[in-house]
Specification:
Elements (H helix, E strand, L loop, with lengths): L12 E5 L16 H4 L2 H10 L2 E5 L19 H8 L4 E3 L5 H9 L5 E4 L6 H5 L2 H8 L4 E4 L23 E3 L1 H14 L6 E5 L8 H7 L5 E4 L4 H7 L3 E2 L9 H14 L2 E3 L3 E5 L8 E5 L2 E2 L4 E5 L1 H12 L3 E5 L12 H15 L3 E4 L2 H9 L8 E2 L4 H7 L5 H7 L1
Parallel strand pairs: 1-2, 1-5, 2-4, 3-4, 5-6, 7-8, 7-15, 8-10, 9-13, 15-16, 16-17
Antiparallel strand pairs: 11-12, 11-14
Helix pairs in contact: 9-10, 11-12
The protein binds adenosine-5'-triphosphate and 3-phosphoglyceric acid.
The site of 3-phosphoglyceric acid (3PG) has 8 residues, from loops.
Pfam families: PGK
Protein name: Phosphoglycerate kinase
GO molecular function: ADP binding; ATP binding; phosphoglycerate kinase activity
């Protein structure tokens, strides 16, 4: 793997694509900085070598050019704190200001460019735009694992302008190495825990995992499509009616492959999608009309936890319930505790990005699992066996 360990950045300007697409609250405070802290080792190595750093990223999905809400200037104070030095900011990612500021950077200094997606050329993978960006640095480093599944100007197209000077950052290398431990050579028993809102987002991954795992646990909103497929009453729970046949075929496939497929036995149900709702516990398939399942029930949590605790490799993607609300986080927390226990007993545990990572962070358990990925969609696509454009661009 071509990583930044292979060169010295002394006297060079490194143009680093990072994924600082972090959640911000209404006052522009960063509510989860995992993606920023994860990029620090790469930045620090380059500065220590005697290089200068130019960071580029997207934030959100702006549709109409420059928008206050999506400005990366909001992350400058926190990034400066994390690095222990003032980070410069360019109000545009290309153009005169960016060029001048990049050129004037001294050894050990850091410049952050404004949101790349203020130009529609970024998502289009425009070659001319990529070329303009490429002029800002001597060496291109891709450390944006979270965006590696996008063939955008800054994540993939730009690499052609650095045929001899393109490298993976440490975060990218760590993400790929950890994903590899799951994909190839997972110690058994191997358990995958799938949750979250929709089956449709995870079909390909589930199919791929059926080839590899011993146990497949399905919880969260997606479990109700399976419950419905089995003919039960699910009340007003989340369901994808057009995926019922698919759910049945996945159950059959699991049987054919000898995979132990575990679905919820009971559920915490509520009479409204609210933390103030009345709650009860119902067996799967026996949810009252007008009530909805918002978490796995206690019997299920105990069953899932037992299987997880006995595992040697664990992949977890998607919460077991609506963990954002206090009343419905118990199931997700029980699973997090089981994963932590297994990890303590020597298992390798990888937490997929997005909401499962947010849940583990909320429970303050990030250090109790083996690895929390910064990738949401990127990790899913990598696990599905797809070649990520951001990875391919450095490798070829
Ligand atoms: N029973 C349920 N009913 C409704 N929503 C649910 C239920 N269980 C979980 N959810 C919601 O599903 C959401 C997470 O689903 P998603 O598919 O996005 O998960 P993820 O894969 O972890 O996240 P990401 O896609 O960001 O990587 C959470 O906001 C959670 O509240
Ligand atoms: O949050 C993510 O998954 C990445 O930053 C990619 O963002 P995108 O889905 O808007 O391309």
């Amino acid at each position: 793997m071509k990583t930044i360990d292979q060169i010295s950045f002394n006297g060079k300007r490194a143009l680093i694509r990072v994924d600082f697409n972090v959640p911000l609250d209404e006052n522009y405070n960063i509510t989860d900085d995992n993606r920023m802290t994860a990029a620090l080792p790469t930045i620090k190595k380059i500065l220590k070598d005697g290089g200068a750093v130019i960071l580029m990223s997207h934030l959100g999905r702006p549709k109409d050019g420059p928008t206050e809400k999506y400005s990366l200037k909001h992350v400058v104070p926190h990034l400066s704190d994390l690095l222990g030095q003032q980070v410069e900011f360019a109000n545009d990612c290309i153009g005169e200001e960016a060029v001048t500021k990049a050129k004037e950077l001294e050894k050990g200094e850091v410049l952050l460019l404004e949101n790349l997606r203020f130009y529609k050329e970024e998502e289009k993978g425009d070659v001319g735009f990529a070329e303009k960006l490429s002029k800002l640095g001597d060496i291109y480093v891709n450390d944006a694992f979270g965006t590696a599944h996008r063939a955008h100007a800054s994540t993939a197209i730009i690499a052609q302008f650095f045929p001899e000077a393109k490298f993976f950052g440490y975060l990218m290398a760590a993400e790929l190495n950890n994903a590899e431990k799951i994909l190839n050579g997972a110690a058994k028993p191997f358990t995958a825990i799938m949750g979250g809102s929709k089956v449709s987002d995870k079909i390909l991954l589930i199919e791929k995992l059926l080839e590899k795992v011993d146990n497949l646990i399905i919880g969260g909103g997606m479990a109700y499509t399976f419950a419905k497929a089995n003919g039960g009453n699910i009340g007003t729970s989340l369901v994808e009616l057009d995926k019922i046949d698919l759910a049945l075929s996945l159950v059959q496939k699991a049987k054919d492959k000898g995979v132990n497929l575990l679905l919820p036995l009971d559920n915490v149900i509520a009479d409204a999608f609210s933390n103030d709702a009345n709650t009860d516990v119902a067996k799967t398939g026996e949810i009252k009309d007008d009530w909805m399942g918002l978490d796995i029930g206690p019997e299920t949590a105990a069953l899932f936890s037992k299987v997880v605790e006995e595992s040697k490799t664990i992949l977890w993607n998607g919460p077991m319930g609506v963990f954002e609300m206090e009343k419905f986080l118990v199931g997700t927390k029980a699973i997090a505790e089981a994963v932590a226990k297994a990890t303590d007993n020597g298992a390798f545990s990888l937490i997929g990005g997005g909401d499962s990572a947010a849940a583990v962070a909320k429970f303050d358990m990030v250090d109790d699992v083996s690895y929390v990925s910064t990738g949401g969609g990127a990790l899913l696509e990598y696990m599905e066996g797809k070649e990520l454009p951001g990875v391919k661009a450095i490798n070829e």
